[in-house]
Amino acid sequence: MKIRIRDASVADMAIITDIYRDSVENGLSTYELVAPSIDDMTSRFHGIAGQNYPYLVAEDESGKVLGYAYASPFRPRPAYRYMAENSVYVAPDTRGIGVGGTLLDALMSATADLGIRQMIAVIGGASPASIAVHEKAGFRHVGRMPASGFKFGKWLDTVLMQIELGEGADTIPAAEPGLKTYP
Ligand SMILES: CC(C)(COP(=O)(O)OP(=O)(O)OC[C@H]1O[C@@H](n2cnc3c(N)ncnc32)[C@H](O)[C@@H]1OP(=O)(O)O)[C@@H](O)C(=O)NCCC(=O)NCCS
Questions:
Q1: Which CATH number characterizes residue 122's domain?
Q2: Could you give the number of structural domains in the chain?
């Protein structure tokens, strides 16, 4: 299958809400317990894309959305502005065929283009699929927070993985990241 990556738009929010609902209700990768509505997801989209962070979708040749990925602030304090957190979600029926990896590569590239130097993945439930896709993309393990989540009656470890973007920490940035505002 040919996978195309493009910027997400408000028109994608219905399918994105459906894809995310599956992970909230059946998965351990997100620590949300109640699936957000399409209005919530649209408002989150505006908050992310409105700051200039990349918010991407993957689609097949017919234009069917297979998954989505976005970057967002890791933590709100401004000294973190050169680090972004990533989120990647693939529709359950199209996992394992390269969609997540393709989205992640495109997201790293678009985030690096903003002048952001580090990307972190906060991997709920130490999900093996998520760890695998990040390892393949070159992320390294930087930490594990034991029993930091509790979902479906189980304590969950959270795994932290990180990769340098662009010049990483080799140089001092000459400019601020290309974000509209930083919280
Ligand atoms: C994690 C997720 C995004 C991966 O996307 P995907 O499209 O299934 O992954 P890909 O097909 O691109 O696979 C990339 C690599 O990871 C490996 N991988 C994928 N799923 C795996 C699994 N369940 N166990 C072990 N390895 C796995 C693949 O084998 C592949 O490596 P390879 O090319 O060397 O074989 C997807 O499974 C998903 O949406 N899961 C639920 C939400 C989630 O966990 N998101 C991450 C939040 S941090």
A1: 3.40.630.30
A2: 1
The predicted model gives 91-115 an average pLDDT of 98
Residue 40: predicted pLDDT: 98
* CA torsion, ordered 106, 111, 114, 119, to nearest 10 deg: -150
How does the average pLDDT of the chain come out, rounded?
Answer: 97
> pTM, whole model, 2 decimals?
0.97
181: nearest Cα among 26, 43, 8, 52:
52
Q: According to the model, what pLDDT value does residue 25 have?
A: 98
> Which residue intervals of 50-137 are DSSP H helices?
99-113, 128-137
State which residues form the domain around 131: 4-164
174 occurs within a structural domain = no
Q: Ligand 1 test: best mutation among 95, 123, 148, most atoms within 8 Å of CB? A: 95
Query: Which residues contact ligand 1 via a Cβ below 6 A?
Result: 23, 27, 29, 88-90, 95-101, 121, 123, 127-130, 132-133, 136
| Most ligand 1 atoms within 8 A of CB, residue of 24, 85, 90, 120 to mutate | 90
